[in-house]
Specification:
With about 290 residues, this protein is of the alpha+beta class. The protein has two domains: about 210 residues, Jelly Rolls (Sandwich); about 35 residues, no CATH class. Helix content is about 30%, strand content about 15%. It contains ten helices and nine strands. The chain is globular, with a radius of gyration of 21 Å.
């Protein structure tokens, strides 16, 4: 963790102070263009969203990892994963991929209601439950619906806030850039006042003991996830969060990606090292107790 903090000190300082950071040219813009081409047929065949928060002139597509294998590189980007680990790992043994969603804001779409993504979890907001990344797949400008952000709002635990428009900043970016922000930050999609679409890819990561926004086990069942890289399989949720969260048939779910047969054996436990020490200490003391 100290090495990560040193390597990304300026990014973390920005995230701690403002709640967001734009990382310029994090990936090759050509890779972003390739992901955009992969997803384009899906955007064209999908109807607009239904709802006030998700927009009625906005198209959203899911299960991005199967629609674009080249998107895997964005989800597994080392800098993004290291920043996610910095904010999430203090409160979990491992974190999960929470969402992959392509988002296209069409001309005439109004600005989204300011909100915090952390509000989906009905528990006290005293630490980060989730972090988010938006990868632009087209140019983001204030006029075409660039994400708006309220710097510093992550320090407030209020679930609903209406920032002054003069306090907002807009994440103007180009393909290859990345916007990383904390889920406790007030933000939203901007209004598209142009004649062109604004397209991006939203990726989020959450604590390993929380339910994911996108049901990864139905979206990427074993026959699909079996072909993914091991690191991506683990991010999706094919692992166990210690202690004993997420096992299947007494196994680590990762084993099911290579062996579909249920083995009739004694149940395996998945506990933390600290818990193992405490249990061993208990039995040692129990032998000498009067």
């Amino acid at each position: 963790m100290k090495l990560i903090l040193s390597k990304h000190r300026k990014l973390i300082q920005k995230l701690d102070h403002d709640g967001y950071v734009i990382i310029r040219r994090l990936i090759d813009p050509l890779l972003a263009d390739e992901v955009a081409r992969d997803l384009e047929p899906r955007f064209r065949s999908r109807g607009p969203s239904q709802g006030n928060l998700w927009g009625k002139k906005t198209t959203r597509i899911e299960s991005v990892l199967t629609k674009s294998k080249r998107s895997h590189a964005l989800v597994l980007d080392p800098t993004i994963l290291e920043l996610a680990a910095h904010y999430l790992r203090p409160n979990c043994s491992n974190f999960h991929l929470n969402l992959t969603q392509g988002i296209r804001i069409h001309p005439g779409e109004r600005a989204q209601v300011p909100h915090k993504d952390s509000s989906m979890y009905p528990i006290d907001k005293t630490f980060d439950f989730m972090v988010n990344v938006i990868w632009p797949l087209s140019n983001f400008t204030k006029q075409n619906g660039a994400t708006f952000l309220a710097p510093g709002s992550h320090r407030s635990h209020a679930e609903v806030e209406l920032p002054r428009k003069s306090d907002l900043v807009y994440a103007e970016m180009q393909p290859g850039d990345a916007l990383f922000y904390r889920s406790s930050l007030t933000h939203g999609g901007g209004a598209n006042q142009t004649h062109h679409d604004r397209t991006g890819l939203a990726v989020s990561y959450s604590l390993g003991w929380l339910r994911q926004s996108e049901n990864m086990y139905l979206t990427y069942p074993p026959p699909v996830a079996r072909d993914f890289p091991e690191e991506l399989q683990s991010l999706i949720g094919y692992n166990v969060h210690k202690p004993n969260l997420g096992w299947a048939f007494s196994k680590d779910p990762a084993a099911l990606l290579n062996d579909d047969d249920e083995v009739d054996r004694g149940a395996e436990e998945f506990i933390t090292r600290k818990q193992s020490w405490l249990m061993k200490g208990y039995y040692l003391l129990d032998k000498v107790r009067p």
